[in-house]
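fwd from M.: "can u put these together and see what the complex looks like"

so here's what she sent:
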Amino acid sequence: MLLSRSVEAKGVNAMDVRIDLPQGTLDLLILKTLALERQHGWAISERIQQISSNVLQIQQGSLYPALHRLERRGWIKSNWDISENNRRAKYYVLTRAGRKQLEAAAGDWRKLSSAVAQVLDMV
Amino acid sequence: MLSDLLYRLKVLFRPNAVEGELDDELRFHMNCLLEKLIQSGLDPVEAERRARMHFGGLAQVKEECREARGVNFVETAIQDLRYGLRILAKNPGFTAMAVLTLALGIGANGAIFSVVNGVLFQPLPFPQPGRLVSITDSYPQGAVVAMRANLHSMEVAGFSDGQELNLTGFGDAVRLYGSAVSANLFSLIGVQPDLGRTFLPGEDQPGNDQVLVLSHSLWM
């Protein structure tokens, strides 16, 4: 699962640094984004990029396979609707199972990241 | 579970609909990206170039989506099957040979198995077949008596080699096949007659041995 982390310098893409996110992290980000409201794929990637202050830039090549995988697991559902710019777009909604999964995965993530932070901060 | 099943069925039976949706979904994303780039001040040609670059290999994205749906395995298997059938249809000679080989192989196996199954695998049709031992050798009749007297760990019954007999008095004479046995044979193997009785003790002694048990097929 690749996310690209881009560093903007003077309006030019100075460099793209690709970092590997831990397994399942992209799923977690998508579920969290959908927990707020239903979204189409484009809005999900824009929202994550905005909220993370442009640090997390999800490639389509990662986003759409992840969405299909999550739908297959029954954590999200999709339906077609007219978008804010008057086009047909595929909207994704969190299911009840998805909400449970989000809670569990978010808890795991917080535990893991605080534990890793503690280890890194030791002197 | 159910949603997974419905999703997979949809992918399997309406693959074009699902593929079309995927196309539409990715095109929508592409258009949004294009608009964003144009709004940021790029001219349309440059924006299009940038968007395509950003989007990466479209075919690869689609392939990964298919894999994420988890039905690639089935799709691939069906494709392979179709390919195999096409190739077979193109080479009727080869197909006939292959089918014939398979038919003969399967047929021979089936025939051999049904024989081996009856002879080796199916237990004898007696109670406690595992406790029966057959010693096939030629002994004088007295040997059975001697064995019975001396062997206390097992019951002993004797039977002679089969011999041909003639049955007369009911129309045409019939050639039968029978064998002399010791009186305890039936009780030893634990078999009851459908009609009448089997031999009583002592009915294998000379002068007392005018009795016989008919087979089911002869009786019918």
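replying to her w this: The first helix of chain A runs from residue 25 to 36.
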